[in-house]
Amino acid sequence: MPTDADHAAQSETFTPPSLEQAAQFGITWDPSVHGDSGYIQSSYPHYIYPQNSESHPVVRSSAHSLTDGAENFQDAMRSLGIAQSRDQAGSAIGTFWSPNSIDPHNQTRSSARSGYFDGFAGRANLHALTSRHVTRLLTAPAAGKGKGVRITGVEYVEYGQERTKHVVHARCEYILSAGTVHSPQLLQLSGIGPKKLLDEFEIPVVVDLPGVGENFQDRRWPPSLTKDSG
Ligand SMILES: Cc1cc2nc3c(=O)[nH]c(=O)nc-3n(C[C@H](O)[C@H](O)[C@H](O)COP(=O)(O)OP(=O)(O)OC[C@H]3O[C@@H](n4cnc5c(N)ncnc54)[C@H](O)[C@@H]3O)c2cc1C
Prior knowledge:
Strands 3-4-5 form a three-stranded antiparallel sheet. It has a two-stranded parallel sheet with strand order 1-2. It has two domains: 4-117, no CATH class; 132-208, 3-Layer(bba) Sandwich (FAD/NAD(P)-binding domain). It is built from seven helices and seven strands; from the N terminus they run αβαβαααβββαβαβ. By secondary structure, it is α/β, with parallel strands linked by helices. The longest helix is centred in the C-terminal third of the chain and has 11 residues, at 179-189. The protein binds flavin-adenine dinucleotide. Flavin-adenine dinucleotide is lined by residues 101, 112, 133-134, 177-179, 182, 186.
């Protein structure tokens, strides 16, 4: 069965850094965990601030290096016994240089819009409804015993006309991508979530799934600021 990592790889076209940049900043990567034909570009910025550099011996001895004497985050981590991961897409434990959603050709942000919409907006079979707010997913029991539920439609309102509910149906499949917070919220509003919570808001329980909307954890994000006193 495909994993989240497989889906991520399918969606990207990965471009590794130049060898010079990789040596200068100590960037490592594993091509086997990346995709090469997806719609989202994944690469490294052409310019990386020199204070982020790896104090690689080659770089240290280079006459052209901007990085001599620069403090080195990865060296510091290593001195604390924290190893560098070869590629965060393979293992996100340790330190690593993460690629960005950047088009390597023009250095612009590669996003869902640029990857999946802009190039296809003229297609006759693509309909994008904007200024709508999804209020609920419509469900029905799936065929066969113990098969759970299936989504049969999406209920939404138009901004400014919130009293009127509309429904759209899909012939093939529904993809819920309302983000980290609102995807589980929509499931809960549709009756898929912890019974105790749904009862509190008088939402009819379709599936009692205690994990929906739970265990949310944000990552820690320690920014660092260095000042060159020289
Ligand atoms: C402050 C911040 C900084 C970040 N920085 C980075 C970064 O540097 N690099 C990186 O890779 N990732 C970063 N992320 C994470 C990244 O933004 C998310 O992982 C990514 O946007 C998730 O994409 P998504 O399509 O699943 O959801 P989202 O981008 O959240 O899109 C969900 C969309 O659904 C819409 N929506 C929600 N509910 C409804 C509803 N009921 N009806 C209709 N529409 C609805 C929302 O308006 C939104 O447009 C950052 C996130 C945050 C919050």
